[in-house]
Amino acid sequence: MLKIKLNLLKIKRTILIKGGASNVVKIANLSKFANNVALNQLKLVDANTDDTASLINSSNTMIDSQDAFIGEVEKSLKEVFHLNKKEVDRVMDEVSVPDLMAFVNYVYGRMNGATDEDFEQAPKD
């Protein structure tokens, strides 16, 4: 069982994530979605600005991956983190996608043995 201190928009509580396979898979999939969003953001930056079709395609791919990620986060906030509908709506309205990505990667890291101290020592850009 993993104990995580949740602090999103002053929604503060300690959450116990049971090590059941379904929760582990959900968090791993969220991390995969977050990494896919980051990859598509990089592809958009590298897209040829002279080629409109390529730029539009890269932009649409990034938007689609971001929308998929947001949908999965919303579902997991209910199912894995046990937030109520009001709390989920507030998080989804007020937290940026990069912050959601960082949160997901934090939880995924904790599930894989990282400690809060590991995250505190990580270089900050």
Rg to the nearest angstrom? 16 Å
Number of domains: 1
Instruction: State the helicity in percent bands.
Output: 55-70%
Tell me, rounded to a whole number, the average pLDDT: 79
Biggest sheet features: 2 strands, antiparallel
* Percent of sequence in beta strands: 5-15%
Structural class: mainly alpha
What characteristics describe this protein?
68% helix; Phage tail assembly chaperone; elongated; 125 residues; single chain; Phage_TAC_Siphoviridae
What would you note in describing this structure?
- There is one protein chain.
- This protein is mostly helical.
- The chain has one domain (2-121).
- The protein contains five helices and two strands.
- The protein has helices spanning 21-46, 52-79, 85-94, 97-111, 116-121, and strands at residues 2-8, 11-17.
- The protein has a two-stranded antiparallel ribbon with strand order 1-2.
- A hairpin with a 2-residue loop joins strand 1 (2-8) and strand 2.
- Helix 1 packs antiparallel against helix 2 (52-79) and helix 2 (52-79) packs antiparallel against helix 3 (85-94).
- The longest helix is centred in the middle third of the chain and has 28 residues, at 52-79.
- The chain is elongated and about 50 Å long.
- The chain starts with a strand and ends with a helix.
- The model has no long low-confidence stretch (mean pLDDT 79).
- This is Phage tail assembly chaperone.
- It holds the Pfam family Phage_TAC_3.
